[in-house]
Design brief:
The longest helix is centred in the first third of the chain and has 6 residues, at about 5-10. The chain has one domain: Thrombin, subunit H. The chain is built from 1 helix and 7 strands. By secondary structure, the chain is mostly beta strands.
Length: about 90
């Protein structure tokens, strides 16, 4: 990871693992995405999943061990079959 990406981060990230469930809000039909945590911070998290359709600004309801709530998609990166997204927790 480049130094420039590191400098933009305001909070320290901690490695994390375990399941995360994401439910897209404001879309019909309801869509639920199962994924795995990559890391967490006080105001967000990063998850690996299989849904390349997540776009910046979309709202999701999330749940992972010890935390649940709503978040906004900050970014999504697709590399082959791997998809990763960063989320900013709302409220």
């Amino acid at each position: 990871m480049s130094g420039n990406c590191q400098e933009r981060r305001r909070e320290p990230r901690q490695p994390a693992s375990g399941p995360v469930t994401l439910e897209l809000l404001d879309v019909l039909p309801r869509r639920v995405i199962e994924g795995r945590l990559v890391d967490i911070s006080p105001s967000g998290f990063r998850a690996s999943h299989g849904y390349a359709g997540l776009t910046s600004g979309q709202r999701v309801r999330f749940e992972y061990p010890g935390r649940r709530g709503e978040a906004r998609v900050a970014w999504t990166r697709v590399a082959g079959k791997e998809v990763e997204s960063g989320f900013f927790v709302l409220g």
